[in-house]
């Protein structure tokens, strides 16, 4: 579903990614862990077609993103640090807008279903600018999946969320996983990674230093491997 070949990303004299080779099968739920500055978010942005690699290739569904950018983008739902919402719009107005951009049929019905799913039906017609961080993130989650993407890319999705919002987010991810959606999540939250992901990738200094399957939500294994591979790195 997702494949990268020798991804290298340079910014000036700094090398951020150093030959990243990655293959993710359809339906997998993958967490990318690593210290600050390791290149985690850069990998996500390259896959999302938001930035171009200095060299290397990315294939989505066996198609190079360079040649099939529009088609690839329609398969992806992306949740960055910023919500990408229009804060003077209501949740309903935001989702209808983004749904129309993706050509979603019965877009208002779809928008209302998602708003209910993320627990914000009572605030359907309230402007987003009046929302808390957790409420905004819930709407942003709905925005990222309004077009029923086959791939979800999440950059630190649990940051700043209260427990209720975390439960909702994890439920949405697991429901989409059950439908065959592929999820790639950059996170520092090992507990959430272990709870919802079946594969862990650890990145250090722009390289993948470990890549393993996770069984039985084994949080201790994640901590142990991370500590061993990132010792001495802040």
What is the typical, i.e. mean, pLDDT?
92
The structural domain count equals 2
Specify the CATH class of the largest domain. Answer: Alpha Beta
Number of strands: 10
Structural class: alpha/beta
Order of strands across the biggest sheet? Answer: 6-7-8-3-9-10
Name given to the CATH homologous superfamily of the largest domain: P-loop containing nucleotide triphosphate hydrolases
Number of helices: 8
CATH topology heading of the largest domain: Rossmann fold
CATH A-level architecture of the largest domain: 3-Layer(aba) Sandwich
Beta strand %? 25-35%
**End-to-end CA span:** 32 Å
Taking pLDDT < 50 over at least 5 consecutive residues as the criterion, the unreliable ranges are: none
State the helicity in percent bands.
25-40%
Based on CA atoms alone, the radius of gyration comes out at 18 Å
Apparent shape: globular
Give the helices and strands as they follow along the chain: EEEHEEHEHHHEHEHEEH
Could you give a short account of the major beta sheet?
Answer: 6 strands, mixed
Can you give a write-up of this model?
With 234 residues, the chain is α/β, with parallel strands linked by helices. The chain folds into two domains: 1-75 and 151-156 and 186-234, Rossmann fold, CATH 3.40.50; 76-148, no CATH class. Helices cover 35% and strands 26% of the residues. The chain has helices at 40-47, 69-73, 91-101, 107-117, 133-145, 163-178, 190-196, 219-229; strands at residues 2-11, 14-24, 29-33, 55-60, 63-64, 76-79, 151-155, 182-186, 199-204, 207-213. A hairpin with a 2-residue loop joins strand 9 and strand 10. Helix 3 packs across helix 4 (107-117). The protein starts with a strand and ends in a 5-residue tail after the last helix.
